[in-house]
């Protein structure tokens, strides 16, 4: 298929979705304060084998605000992922990172039979939601004007690059950095959605879903960064142990956003995992 951009109506509002490539359907769920462009470095390595579905979920880096009364909690976003997946030709591989990884965990418990396999990159899990270094941001959501002030500060290149250093060892290409944050710096609607999401980031949510992950019986690949300030390394094996059919691959030279730090390596791991069929992929610790 040719590359295309659409706007899809989901519960609570519309979501911008890009589709790139052809082959097995892969639905990518990005993290907090960014959008589907965080996956762009993977496109060259995957587009010949995958129909890459890249939504801009309303997690702060989106362009199109949800309806003012829309639910922006993790469960509601997981339901939107399920709605997107239902529109796609099976089998569907679900890939989640950061906050999007928590959303992916919830999605596979909501509809275990909808997804053929799951890839989890460094993500909120267990008691680490939001990550401890980002916990003060959740408090900002209840301070009048605080979220808007943070959003406006992201117009400064220095602030944007400092933020990205938390999640990536590489300094993103300036053109990519310009699109990663969507309309957060300038749109009050996007800022509203973001503030509501922050209020819903609670460890009780991820702790509860961890108890339900056993319901997903398809193959799971957990890709984790060995040295990352946000997501504890021991969570990789702990998360993998929640599933009956899982393996772990370790990114040695990445922080949370492996798609930015080691795109070629990650693309190869995803392709190998899907090509392995129902056999267990081998853990790759390099």
TrEMBL record:
Q: Where is the AB hydrolase-1 domain?
A: 27-263
What keywords would UniProt list here? Hydrolase
Matching entries from InterPro entries are given as: AB_hydrolase_1 (IPR000073), AB_hydrolase_fold (IPR029058), AB_hydrolase_sf (IPR050266)
Q: Show the GO cellular component annotation of the record.
A: membrane
Q: Which SUPFAM superfamilies match?
A: alpha/beta-Hydrolases (SSF53474)
Top-level taxon: Bacteria
Entry annotated with the keyword Hydrolase: yes
Q: Example GO molecular function term?
A: hydrolase activity
- Is Heme a UniProt keyword of this protein? no
* Cross-referenced PANTHER family: HYDROLASE, PUTATIVE (AFU_ORTHOLOGUE AFUA_2G14860)-RELATED, MONOACYLGLYCEROL LIPASE
Name of the featured protein:
Alpha/beta hydrolase
